[in-house]
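Aspartate/glutamate racemase family protein: structure, please.
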Amino acid sequence: MKTIGLIGGMSWESSAVYYRLINEGVRQRLGGLHSARCLMWSFDFAEIEALQRADRWDDATALMIDAARRVERGGAAFVMICTNTMHRMADDVQDAIGVSLLHIADPTAERIRADGLHRVGLLGTAFTMEQDFYKGRLAGRHGLDVLVPDAGDRQTIHRVIFQELVQGRLLPDSRQACREIIGRLVERGAGAIILGCTELMLLLGPQDSPVPLYDTTALHAHAAVTMSLEK
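Here you go.
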């Protein structure tokens, strides 16, 4: 079994789910008392969020590279960033380490394409929905047609993530607002919805969407289990 290197704490709410899903996945594959070999570097998310808000992405990149190198030195056979937004610097992190980076967008897009879907709606932080690092990979590498909510809906999703979900607050009114946003994306032609923030799965499930939801947290964790058990 290969050792998985996780860069977490962004936020710990979803990092805890990663840890559970990866260990459950290994136990399901191997049975008995098996669990995952993994290392996690967990950030103080307040420090990361302050850099994001201040548009200090170079400083955030330096921290991510340092974390990746730490888990690599600890024996990780590959590295995963346990958040969608911080894949903004995924290429820089990959260039700085000698092991593979398992990009969160790839297993998500591969599952969507395997299911025969092409046009998808993307929910996430404003950074993920508005900047090209994520949408561009989905489109350029995987051929997906990516729709994002309008400006007001993007603001709502961003607020729910940062003011509620990363603090463990799950509010019915916010779930309803997200359902309505999903509905508007479906009206525009989205055949599926990507939960492109690792906290969104805490609030939303299949019952909240008329089209399939693709949970990046679960798909990323599943891919990590597969990669760790490959010969």
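Notes: The first strand starts at residue 4 and ends at 8.
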